[in-house]
Design a protein that fits this description.
By secondary structure, this protein is of the alpha/beta class. 38% of the residues lie in helices and 31% in strands. The protein has four helices and five strands. The protein has helices at residues 3-22, 34-37, 63-76, 146-174, and strands spanning 44-49, 80-81, 89-99, 102-120, 126-142.
């Protein structure tokens, strides 16, 4: 047997235990978290926009305009808005806050919650509809600019939600 072959075999035999020991450290196929999987392949949703609080009304904003921005963003992403109550539902909520020390300032928190029908295993698989994901947008602005700021935040939150739905679908379909 030549020196080259014996040397090659010696290196192989010496390296084998290192490879075996390192095997658990090598990357494995990742497990997709349930909260991500729950967003995959959503291509149809219901849409519920809560009534705007009094402090957010006016200034060129109303529930109809908010709904229109959401529908446009979802439709552009290939997600159909439907009246079917069996599909996941996006619930839009608003929380304004003011401070008497800053009378011209308003803080706005906006959430887009995805409500889905799930089975609760610890309750003997009882089916219920629960929020599975929330996108939150917030802003601090002057009261005279609240309408424009709120509409921008609705658009931003819609984009974030669409990106999350797209990313979840891509990950599930790629098996990552």
């Amino acid at each position: 047997m030549s020196l080259r072959i014996r040397l090659g075999m010696a290196v192989l035999v010496a390296a084998l235990p290192v490879v075996i020991i390192a095997a658990p450290l090598l990357p494995t196929r990742s497990v997709i978290p349930d909260e991500v999987r729950s967003l995959a392949r959503i291509d149809e949703v219901g849409l519920e926009v809560w009534r705007l609080p009094r402090s957010l009304r006016g200034a060129g904003v109303d529930e109809r305009r908010i709904r229109s921005i959401l529908e446009r963003g979802l439709n552009d992403a290939g997600i159909r808005v439907t009246q079917d109550h069996t599909t996941p539902r996006i619930v839009v909520k608003f929380w304004p806050a003011t401070d008497s020390k800053l009378p011209d300032v308003i803080a706005i928190v906006l959430t887009l919650d995805i409500h889905q029908r799930i089975a609760m295993m610890r309750l003997d698989q009882e089916q219920m509809t629960l929020p599975t994901t929330s996108v939150i947008a917030r802003a601090i602005t002057t009261k005279d600019k609240r309408g424009g700021v709120l509409m921008k935040k609705v658009g931003d939150a819609t984009d974030l939600l669409v990106n999350a739905l797209t990313e979840a679908t891509n990950r599930v379909e790629a098996g990552q």
